[in-house]
Design a protein that fits this description.
With about 375 residues, this protein is an alpha/beta fold. The chain folds into 2 domains: about 5-265, Acetylglutamate kinase-like (Carbamate kinase, 3-Layer(aba) Sandwich), CATH 3.40.1160.10; about 270-365, Roll (Archaeosine Trna-guanine Transglycosylase, Chain: A, domain 4). The chain contains 14 helices and 13 strands. It has helices spanning about 10-15, 25-40, 50-60, 70-90, 105-110, 110-125, 150-160, 195-200, 215-225, 240-245, 260-270, 280-290, 330-335, 345-350; strands spanning about 5-10, 45-50, 95-100, 130-135, 165-170, 190, 230-235, 250-255, 275-280, 300-305, 310-315, 320-325, 365. Helix 2 packs across helix 4 and helix 7 runs parallel beside helix 9. The radius of gyration is 22 Å and the shape is globular. It is found in: Cytoplasm. It catalyses: L-glutamate + ATP = L-glutamyl 5-phosphate + ADP. Catalyzes the transfer of a phosphate group to glutamate to form L-glutamate 5-phosphate. It comes from Orbus hercynius.
Length: about 375
């Protein structure tokens, strides 16, 4: 089986089993499945709901006013209990976890996106399972993702995932609401998300429709544009995570383009270039013919001022743009390290974000 990076989003209904509190027996079963995949070399990322439910349970279901501040209070109390539970259950299998609390601002600002991506990659490379949730305690309406379905899609892009699994209390997306229509049929594969499909899914904002499928459809659309396969399935199904990882037909599967990496790049690089760098002939050859990243030693000129994480043009000595990519360093830093070997970066600027100026995975060759 090909080793994959798999993001697993767990809704509150899955974690509570429909009750008022977190169901430890159900969660440990999900952790067991993650452990088996982890043993096989897959990289696992958890996007977890349940902080507010955990907060209510911890405070013995207090009678609070229905305000944003009350939800922030519950999330603040519950997030600690929730991450503690994940830590305890993964420790049964000697797996370490790392917590990441994100807002939309962390994912829309390119420098913060890169910083979060670096942290996520470091955890995955060291066999640590990231556990991600929205930072509800501080998020305002302007910076909230708003729901963990969409957050999981953004996390999957952050992790450059192969699969996004959305686990819910429904088997998948149906032709109608199965709770109301006994003739509703499970849709096993979806190639295109159109208006008719969105009408079936229902209103994502209100949470109505077939099991609150509206936001899951939004997540599938976001992840699909980045070339990530999405599966919606029932969290209560036996071995659901293992079966999906093994490409067994489960739930509703959203098909993706055969060139996901390029789609992921185009999704990231919608912004116009903020500046440019000029490369020597050796670096140009390495990009065009060898599929290499850009090292500082190949840079001979840096133009305009830009921040780490911004998109820049990559030019040859004749000034022709041969590629476009996300810079790992700001323009001032690149000017200082240009023409130098990677091992000199830290000495020259006092820090480093890795050995490359622009990574191949963050580059489109024209």
């Amino acid at each position: 089986m090909k080793r994959q990076t798999i993001v697993i989003k767990l809704g509150t209904s899955v974690l509570t089993g429909g009750s008022k509190k977190l169901d430890r027996s159900k969660i440990v079963e999900l952790v067991r499945q993650c452990h088996l995949l982890h043993q096989q070399g897959h990289k696992i990322v958890i996007v977890t709901s349940g902080a507010i439910a955990a907060g209510r349970e911890q405070l013995n279901y207090p009678d609070l006013p229905k305000t944003i501040a009350s939800k922030q209070l519950l999330a603040s109390v519950g997030q600690g209990k929730l991450i503690q539970l994940w830590e305890q259950l993964f420790s049964i299998y000697n797996i370490f976890i790392g917590q990441m609390l994100l807002t939309r601002a962390d994912l829309e600002d390119r420098e913060r996106f890169l910083n979060a991506q670096d942290a996520l990659k470091a955890m995955l490379d060291n066999h640590i399972v990231p556990v991600i949730n929205e930072n509800d305690a501080v998020a305002t309406a302007e910076i909230k993702v708003g729901d963990n379905d969409n957050l999981s899609a953004l996390a999957a892009i952050l992790a450059q995932a192969d699969k996004l699994i959305l686990l819910t209390d429904q088997e998948g997306l149906f032709t109608a609401d199965p709770r109301k229509d006994p003739n509703a049929q499970l849709i096993t594969e979806i190639e295109t998300i159109d208006n008719a499909l969105k009408a079936i899914a229902g209103d994502s904002v209100s949470g109505l429709g077939t099991g609150g499928m509206g936001t899951k459809l939004q997540a599938a659309e976001i992840a699909g544009k980045a070339g990530i396969e999405v599966i919606i399935a029932a969290g209560s199904r036996a071995n659901v995570i293992i079966d999906i990882a093994g490409n067994i037909a489960v739930g509703t599967r959203f098909l993706v383009n055969k060139t996901p990496l390029e789609h992921r790049k185009y999704w990231l690089f919608g912004a116009p270039p903020a500046g440019s760098i000029t490369l020597d002939d050796g670096a140009v050859n390495a990009i065009l013919n060898q599929g290499r990243s850009i090292l500082p030693t190949g840079i001979i000129k840096v133009e305009h001022n830009f921040s780490r994480g911004e998109v820049i043009d990559i030019c040859n000595k004749e000034g022709i743009s041969i590629a476009r990519g996300v810079s790992r360093y700001n323009s001032d830093a690149l000017r200082q390290i240009a023409g130098h070997h990677s091992q000199e970066i830290s000495k020259l600027i006092g820090y480093e974000y890795g050995s490359v100026a622009v990574h191949r995975d963050d580059m489109i060759v024209k």
